[in-house]
Amino acid sequence: MLTITAIACTIGSVLFLMYALLPTFYNKYWNKNAVRILPQKKQILLSFDDGPDPRYTGKLLDLLQKHNATATFFVVAAKAMQYPQLVERMIAEGHTVALHSCEHKNPWYKNYRATQEDFAFSLALMKNSGWSIRYYRPPWGRSNLFTQSIAKQHGLQMVFWNVEARDWSEKATVSSIANQLLHKTKDGGIVCLHDSGEENGAAKDAPLKTIAALAEILPIWKQEHYEFVKPESVV
Hints:
Layout: H1 4-30, E1 43-49, H2 57-66, E2 72-75, H3 77-82, H4 84-92, E3 96-99, H5 112-128, E4 135-136, H6 147-153, E5 157-158, E6 163-164, H7 174-184, E7 189-194, H8 206-223, E8 227-228
Helix pairs in contact: 7-8
């Protein structure tokens, strides 16, 4: 006979499945309104999460400018307010600025009100700075039951990825990041990398390895005639 504790655990597990896990998998793999792969061959959407960060984002922008490569930056709104000059530079140099939540908190543990406030507050801050935001990537790619509907209310389209190189890991090296980018990125690749993130568990100075790996890979992608695109050109 089931105990009260066992029944409570079962109910809790079912609720968590319905509120967090199923919406995450739906949005990431089946939601037709989310961008997960590019429609054209020889295109790459290069994206960076968790910034801006004064230690790394400027160096990354220098590298992208050197190779005439455009990217999409999914910025944390609170950081964007701290370092608006980096966001302004992204825009001035032709990159897309998108939202990655207000403070990079886990959506699984936010209720409807907290989810709505996260979007509303983030977008109000960015609108007041004159930045038009059309795209959203949830932290860690995680959604809750309300993420998609609230994003849609605010006119945002979710963008996920199909290529990652675990560039945030302590085990990552410049070589491992470069090799993964080279071998995983195919036609229509949406590449997810990071220009910050230590507060979210990333290794110390991890973006420096990412930048060094990209310095090796960007010329190869260009030699292979890949076009660097932004979400607005493919959706």
